[in-house]
């Protein structure tokens, strides 16, 4: 009996994942935001955010009513989850928030597609570099991490739990600590 292997499951012997094919950082996986049940607070918050974005540029009486409904839904689910994602933010598709509690995102921060944010993450201004941060695609950000200032976090990077990131993180690197330092690429 032979076992078929998936080519996406290959990992190098060094443990770094160098041989593992990387998924494109530009194509959002919208299934990550799809509501799976009636009580799904994180995905309901994101759905209200996306619905508002779809109605935002259109000028009609029906769209105005839909925008107001989206704003009410967004406020309701934001209060339930404790997530502060301002309407009009630049957030790529496929955002995943498994534990929606205390996440704060600055209005001008840019977040790429398919990112993963755990609870108590702050993405905002401050730190040593002025301006809001830019986060690439497929970035995993651990619980309690703070990404502050006009820095850039590259695609496929990982930010450790409770890290305070004040400097750029290259693509595919891991940053941990307070203040965060890059430990691998």
Explain this structure:
With 185 residues, the protein is of the alpha/beta class. It has helices spanning 41-56, 61-81, and strands spanning 90-91, 104-105, 110-111, 116-117, 122-124, 134-135, 140-141, 146-148, 152-153, 158-159, 164-165, 174-176, 181-184. The chain is built from two helices and 13 strands, in the order ααβββββββββββββ. The protein has a five-stranded mixed sheet with strand order 4-7-10-12-13, with no helix packed on it. Strands 1-3-6-9 form a four-stranded parallel sheet, with no helix packed on it. A hairpin with a 4-residue loop joins strand 12 and strand 13. The longest helix has 21 residues, at 61-81. It starts with 40 loop residues before the first helix and ends with a strand. The model is unreliable at 1-21 (pLDDT under 50).
Keywords:
alpha/beta; UDP N-Acetylglucosamine Acyltransferase, domain 1; five-stranded mixed β-sheet; four-stranded parallel β-sheet; 17% strand; disordered N terminus
List the topology elements.
Blueprint: H1 41-56, H2 61-81, E1 90-91, E2 104-105, E3 110-111, E4 116-117, E5 122-124, E6 134-135, E7 140-141, E8 146-148, E9 152-153, E10 158-159, E11 164-165, E12 174-176, E13 181-184
Parallel strand pairs: 1-3, 2-5, 3-6, 4-7, 5-8, 6-9, 7-10, 8-11, 10-12
Antiparallel strand pairs: 12-13
Helix pairs in contact: 1-2
Tell me the distance between the termini: 38 Å
Strand content: 15-25%
Q: Can you tell me the CATH class?
A: Mainly Beta
CATH topology: UDP N-Acetylglucosamine Acyltransferase, domain 1
Largest sheet: 5 strands, mixed
* Helix coverage percent: 10-25%
CATH superfamily: Hexapeptide repeat proteins
Radius of gyration: 18 Å
Low-confidence segments, given as residue ranges, are 1-21
Task: Provide the spatial order of strands within the biggest beta sheet.
Answer: 4-7-10-12-13
What structural category characterises the helix and strand content? alpha/beta
Order of helices and strands: HHEEEEEEEEEEEEE
Query: Which shape, going by the Cα principal axes?
Result: elongated
């Amino acid at each position: 009996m032979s076992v078929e292997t998936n080519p996406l499951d290959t990992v190098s012997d060094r443990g770094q994942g160098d041989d593992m094919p990387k998924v494109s950082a530009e194509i959002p996986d919208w299934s990550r935001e799809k509501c799976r049940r009636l009580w799904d607070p994180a995905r309901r918050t994101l759905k209200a955010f996306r619905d508002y974005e779809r109605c935002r540029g259109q000028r009609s009486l029906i769209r105005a009513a839909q925008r107001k409904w989206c704003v009410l839904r967004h406020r309701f689910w934001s209060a339930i989850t404790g997530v502060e994602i301002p309407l009009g933010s630049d957030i790529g598709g496929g955002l995943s928030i498994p534990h929606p509690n205390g996440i704060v995102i600055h209005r001008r921060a840019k977040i790429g597609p398919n990112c993963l944010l755990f609870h108590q993450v702050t993405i905002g201004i401050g730190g040593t570099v002025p301006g809001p941060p830019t986060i690439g695609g497929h970035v995993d950000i651990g619980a309690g991490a703070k990404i502050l200032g006009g820095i850039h976090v590259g695609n496929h990077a990982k930010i450790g739990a409770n890290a305070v990131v004040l400097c750029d993180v290259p693509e595919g690197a891991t940053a941990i600590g307070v203040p965060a330092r890059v430990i691998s690429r």
